[in-house]
Structure to design on (1293 residues):
């Protein structure tokens, strides 16, 4: 299996690889729009409240409540040509992107999440706001520069952004802190949550009006040696967009994995082999360093452990500076002992590659697609004593992916063919949530629907079914370039006059408690300009500038009762109280009232009594009912 | 809305706000000024302090008072473990407090008094730096008092306050003073704090939204916005518009609030912080050149970071770089460590350094190069070997009643070459020095208080435009030390200002008109509105109201299958569901024409006042028509006629 990919493979990979950087879209008639139109038309507007999520290659694009939000802006590590950058013309076939995108959110510093950002701002010409956390803002430019160097200076690629472009791009970035509610404009709000995946990784909640989505980026639900676990509050978003890299893996406990890893490393060095661990300079590398350092210390091992210099020291400095983003343990003890000052790990020099004897080397990049790790790999691969441990996910097209799939030979650009005789191990160390973690996150935030991105289709399908089954939630997994329509119930937030609410509250509190009875609010909804408010009928008339027209009925019933009229009234009162239980029947000023229906008895003693019943049109049913009762009495007597 | 004031010190505030049935405590500052009345607690037993003469009032025969009071240079001090004045306890039951909001680490020292052993069940909100640095303040205070315990528990002096000389006689309610809490209390109390970020919207029982915004005063310092759907209360405590190390103040969200509670203005309104910093640098340089040493009593965090930075560069410029700086505090290492990892809470200048990555404060570098040495105590390992003079010593406590500073004053007090420089504004420096008199060492007063001064505060108020302004009473008149400086007050013209003082409760009238409810889409779908005039539509609604977590939701009324049709009448809901209201005037001509169409011909109309009376000759029925009403009088037996009239009438009228 050699380097060239068939057309089919590329197509397939569009569907199953990194989708973090995809774009979604949602079309919603906002509450404001609804209120400004005639309410009878609102029926169809409400029905149109669906989230449309369009997935474009390698960009996740969000259109929510009339707003367009770009979630991550990554590049593809498997391509060396223009396909590495997202095709922005997909979202705006013509015209500038700035007017179309309200903001760009970057979840963390991995290049498949931020690699195309300078391309977007400096070459495509996006000038709108960009948000990321402080550590991401600090570390991303270093990785971008590193990648640029490899691409331009080593591979001699053209049409790439320059160092200055990276700097200019980062100047435009607005740093956000965790849990801060940031208003992008008057309607669009974003909020970051801790994601744990790498230093500064965040999940983002995007809210427009009553609609919201949570975008996880990459996240990790189990605290590791240097980072904490992802957390999100019960924010009940309409859509949870989650990565599903490890959709079916339920990874065994962290401790087991660590033991496995150390066992494999020790076995290899015991037989005099060399261990290569390709890693991202930042992130997993620090965790593995802590792991190896403590193991070496405890076992008193002497085999040299190297970490490729360059980024390392700087990287560790970032970890020291942003120690608030690491886990509780490290935070607590950092004043006494900084976990990132390693005792047994020494800087690596290229001349060590050919050194005899065993050693352990951690070298970037993590997918063996370029740079030092690939260089070491080429040297060490033909020796069966050696070992390469891939501690994370590898994109199709990279050497890492090929050897993980059992490739025994790898061919490179210059026709150089390398036999892979070293043992190849895969350790799922990359800090993605596994199936259990994804389910846990769903439990945390209680979304109304779930959208899976990033992962392999078959595994995603399995997870989708599981989510549907366990949470009874709609779960989507759109293919690349596919648009997903997600209907979301649209809550309208309207005003109620306090007088009306308070009156209801008083009435409710005066009644004996009955959990079965629902509380009832009765009033008039006034829709005026762009405001909606429920108020008392008289307030409403005043607000609308109209006069009520009250229709009143007064009917007379003749009763024969030889007693003073007040006695008759008292008798009637008793009858009504018996016949209309649950109604408010009172007697005052010689008149009986059944709620708002008035009954008055007239006539002197030993005469026929005239009983007047008076009610307004709104009490028609009760009025007739009272009248019928009175008439039945009249017939009886 | 009601506001209770529990503290007498505007810079150590403690208020309680009751709003929408939620009880919120705003800050819980502890004034340590009461400690000034007590004898200092030296690290090393001091014969001078031990031999101070006892003081007894002339008139008193109280023998129990023996040994409680000591005199030094005309001032009387209590020889006892220092006591502190906690917030007024009897105004509000602490178990009723739902939430405590803390503005900054200097206004939370009373927290253990509030939360421990009081039945307190609420939540405490503070930013991460406020928690971390506040922890250092609390722990330092407790450790100072525990390392030099005073066994005496004087209390009889409180009974004869009127016989004592000032300032002791002016003590405010000394019987309510309390000894400090323990480390255990501190730990439990801090465990109740929930960390919040700036601009994080916190939900308080669904009724209120509470948000911390940057106040620019110190690391993690915040002002608070407490909002319901339509009302907003802004609590501004300890803010600064100067550029020092913290993140700048965020004013935009505080604008146009219904109520603005403003406290924590500068305690030294006549001193400019920049000038004072300059004077401090000069005084330090002069002393060092004369071979003297400098003591700067300080808190473990805050302005002290700026002092390290400014002083080291000033000394560099004077070729005094070899002079060591000592920072002594039980929490010195933590303070220096934490300040350099809180980048997100710093000014953009300092923040940008992290991107390089460099430490935001230079004190990390100063420690590495040995310019700044830090120790937990003066008796910590290595201090005595490293210590050399001349030097600059930063250590607590600024009250000079406890902490290692007491030792340095005792040691250096008799030497005129040395200088003590007061920068913390919390304690009047002459009062702080009183028990050490007579003193030969120089005392320099350079208070550095970056909080808002009156000019800045008045400008801020003008920009924020609150409907009602609440300020401590002290801000409505010039400070006692500057009675003639009439500009040192909060402007009260053209604004509704309420002043408040300890023990007072004020009602804050906030007119509330409406609240937000959520309208269920299914219900919204069924609403048909009638346009009564262009742009205005009305629809009568009868719906089920669901109230949960103080959130109101309106949904369709449930159909209740268990109630038979006839019985349902008695519930009323069903009738209400289809209810409509008529509006506008009745056109009598149209009405009569319709009557005739329906076969009611025998109609006689006569004008009556402003309306008409319509007689239906055949039946004993009269219709009285007015502009805003129509009244139909009929015999009970004529049901069908009445219903016919009703339906005709309703055809002639508009309704919604």
């Amino acid at each position: 299996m050699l380097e060239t990919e068939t057309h089919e493979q590329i197509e397939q990979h569009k569907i199953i690889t990194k989708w973090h950087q995809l774009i979604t879209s949602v079309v919603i008639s906002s509450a404001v729009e609804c209120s400004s139109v005639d309410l009878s038309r609102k029926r169809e507007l409400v029905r149109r409240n669906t989230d449309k999520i369009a997935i474009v290659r390698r960009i996740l694009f969000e259109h929510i409540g009339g707003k367009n939000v770009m979630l991550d802006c990554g590049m593809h590590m498997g391509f060396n040509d223009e396909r590495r950058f997202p095709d922005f013309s997909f979202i705006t076939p013509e015209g500038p992107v700035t007017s179309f995108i309200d903001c760009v959110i970057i979840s963390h510093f991995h290049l498949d999440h931020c690699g195309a950002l300078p391309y977007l701002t400096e070459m495509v010409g996006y000038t709108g706001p960009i948000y990321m956390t402080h550590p991401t803002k600090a570390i991303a430019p270093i990785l971008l520069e590193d990648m640029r160097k490899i691409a331009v200076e080593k591979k001699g690629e053209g049409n790439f952004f320059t160092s200055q472009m990276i700097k200019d791009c980062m100047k435009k970035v607005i740093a956000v802190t965790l849990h801060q509610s940031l208003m992008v404009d008057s309607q669009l709000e974003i909020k970051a949550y801790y994601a744990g995946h790498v230093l500064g990784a965040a999940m983002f909640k995007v809210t427009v009006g009553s609609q919201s989505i949570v975008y996880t980026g990459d996240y990790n639900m189990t605290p590791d040696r240097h980072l904490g676990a992802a957390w999100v509050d019960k924010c009940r978003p309409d859509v949870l967009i989650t990565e599903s890299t490890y959709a079916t893996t339920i990874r065994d406990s962290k401790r087991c994995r660590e033991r496995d890893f150390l066992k494999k490393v020790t076995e290899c060095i015991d037989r005099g082999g060399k261990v290569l661990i390709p890693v991202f300079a930042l992130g997993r590398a620090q965790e593995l360093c802590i792991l190896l350092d403590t193991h070496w210390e405890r076992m008193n091992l002497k085999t040299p452990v190297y970490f490729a210099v360059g980024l390392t020291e700087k990287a560790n400095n970032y970890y020291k500076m942003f120690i608030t983003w690491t886990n509780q343990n490290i935070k607590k003890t950092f004043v006494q002992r900084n976990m990132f000052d390693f005792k047994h790990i020494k800087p690596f020099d290229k001349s060590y590659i050919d050194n005899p004897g065993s050693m352990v080397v951690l070298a970037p990049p993590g997918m063996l697609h370029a740079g030092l790790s690939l260089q070491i790999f080429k040297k060490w691969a033909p020796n069966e004593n050696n070992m390469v441990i891939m501690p994370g996910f590898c994109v199709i097209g990279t050497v890492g992916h090929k050897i993980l799939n059992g490739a025994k030979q790898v061919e490179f650009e210059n026709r150089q063919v390398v036999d892979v005789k070293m043992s190849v191990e895969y350790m799922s160390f990359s800090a993605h949530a596994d199936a259990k973690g994804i389910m846990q996150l769903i439990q945390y935030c209680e979304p109304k629907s779930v959208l899976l991105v990033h992962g392999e289709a078959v595994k995603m399908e399995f997870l989708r079914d599981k989510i549907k089954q366990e949470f009874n939630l709609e779960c989507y997994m759109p293919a690349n370039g596919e648009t997903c329509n997600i209907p979301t119930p649209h809550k309208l937030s309207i005003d109620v006059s306090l007088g009306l609410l308070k009156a209801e509250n008083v009435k409710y509190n005066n009644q004996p408690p009955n959990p079965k009875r629902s509380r009832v609010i009765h009033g008039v909804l006034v829709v005026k300009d762009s405001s909606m408010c429920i108020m008392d009928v008289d307030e409403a008339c005043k607000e609308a500038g109209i006069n009520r027209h009250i229709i009143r009925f007064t009917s007379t019933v003749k009763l024969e009762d030889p007693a003073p009229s007040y006695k008759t009234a008292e008798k009637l009162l008793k009858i009504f109280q018996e016949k209309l239980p649950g109604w408010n029947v009172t007697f005052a000023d010689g008149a009986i009232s059944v709620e708002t229906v008035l009954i008055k008895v007239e006539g002197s003693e030993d005469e026929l009594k005239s009983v007047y019943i008076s009610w307004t049109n709104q009490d028609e049913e009760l009025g007739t009912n009272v009248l019928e009762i009175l008439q039945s009495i009249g017939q009886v007597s | 809305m009601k506001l209770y004031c529990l503290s007498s010190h505007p810079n150590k505030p403690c208020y309680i706000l009751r709003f929408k049935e939620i009880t919120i405590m705003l800050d819980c500052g502890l004034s340590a000024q009461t400690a000034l009345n007590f004898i200092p607690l030296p690290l090393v037993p001091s014969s001078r302090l031990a031999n101070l003469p006892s003081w007894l009032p002339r008139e008193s025969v109280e023998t129990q008072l023996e040994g409680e009071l000591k005199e030094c240079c005309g001032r009387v001090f209590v020889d006892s473990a220092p006591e502190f004045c906690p917030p007024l306890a009897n105004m509000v039951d602490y178990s009723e407090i739902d939430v405590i909001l803390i503005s900054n680490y200097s206004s939370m020292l009373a927290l253990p008094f509030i939360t421990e052993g009081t039945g307190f069940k609420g939540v405490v909100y503070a930013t991460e730096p406020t928690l971390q640095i506040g922890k250092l303040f609390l722990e330092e205070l407790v450790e100072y008092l525990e390392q030099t315990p005073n066994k005496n528990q004087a209390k009889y002096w409180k009974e004869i306050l009127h016989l004592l000389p000032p300032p002791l006689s002016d003590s405010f309610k000394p019987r309510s003073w309390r000894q400090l809490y323990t480390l255990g209390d501190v730990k439990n109390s801090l465990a109740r704090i929930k960390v919040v970020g700036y601009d994080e919207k916190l939900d308080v029982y669904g009724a209120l939204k509470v948000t911390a915004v940057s106040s620019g005063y110190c690391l993690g310092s915040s002002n608070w916005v407490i909002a319901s759907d339509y009302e907003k209360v802004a609590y501004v405590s300890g803010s600064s518009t100067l550029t020092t190390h913290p993140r700048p103040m965020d004013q935009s969200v505080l604008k146009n609030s219904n109520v603005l509670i403003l406290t924590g203005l500068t305690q030294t309104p006549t001193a400019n912080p920049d000038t004072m910093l300059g004077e401090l640098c000069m005084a330090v340089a002069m002393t060092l050149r004369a071979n003297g040493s400098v003591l700067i009593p300080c808190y473990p965090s805050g302005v002290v970071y700026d002092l390290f930075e400014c002083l080291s560069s000033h000394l560099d410029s004077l070729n005094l770089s070899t002079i060591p700086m000592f920072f002594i505090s039980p929490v010195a290492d933590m303070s220096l460590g934490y300040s350099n990892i809180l980048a997100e809470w710093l000014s953009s200048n300092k923040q940008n350094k992290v991107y390089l990555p460099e430490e935001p404060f230079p004190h990390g570098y100063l420690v590495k190069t040995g310019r700044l040495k830090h120790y937990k105590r003066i008796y910590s390992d290595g201090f005595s070997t490293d210590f050399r003079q001349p030097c600059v010593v930063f250590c607590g406590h600024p009250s000079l009643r406890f902490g290692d500073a007491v030792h340095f004053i005792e040691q250096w007090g008799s030497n005129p070459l040395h200088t003590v420089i007061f920068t913390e504004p919390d304690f009047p420096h002459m009062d702080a020095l009183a028990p050490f008199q007579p003193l030969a060492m120089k005392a320099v007063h350079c208070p550095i208080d970056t909080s808002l001064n009156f000019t800045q505060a008045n400008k801020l108020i003008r920009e924020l435009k609150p409907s009602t302004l609440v300020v401590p009473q002290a801000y409505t008149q010039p400070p006692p030390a500057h009675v003639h400086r009439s500009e040192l007050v909060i402007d009260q013209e053209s604004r509704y200002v309420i002043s408040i003082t300890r023990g007072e409760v004020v009602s804050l009238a906030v007119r509330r008109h409406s609240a937000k409810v959520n309208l269920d889409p299914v219900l919204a779908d069924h609403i048909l509105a009638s346009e009564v005039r262009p742009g205005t539509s009305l629809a009568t609604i009868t719906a089920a109201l669901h109230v949960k977590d103080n959130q109101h939701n309106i949904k369709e009324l449930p159909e209740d299958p268990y109630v038979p049709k006839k019985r349902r009448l008695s519930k009323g809901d069903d009738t209400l569901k289809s209810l409509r209201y008529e509006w506008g005037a009745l056109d009598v001509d149209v009405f009569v024409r319709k009557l005739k169409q329906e076969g009611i011909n025998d109609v006689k109309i006569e004008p009556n006042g402003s309306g008409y009376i319509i007689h239906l000759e055949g039946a004993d029925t009269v219709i009285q028509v007015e502009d805003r009403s129509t009244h139909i009088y009929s015999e009970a037996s004529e049901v069908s006629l009445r219903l016919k009239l009703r339906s005709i009438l309703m055809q002639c009228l508009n309704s919604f």
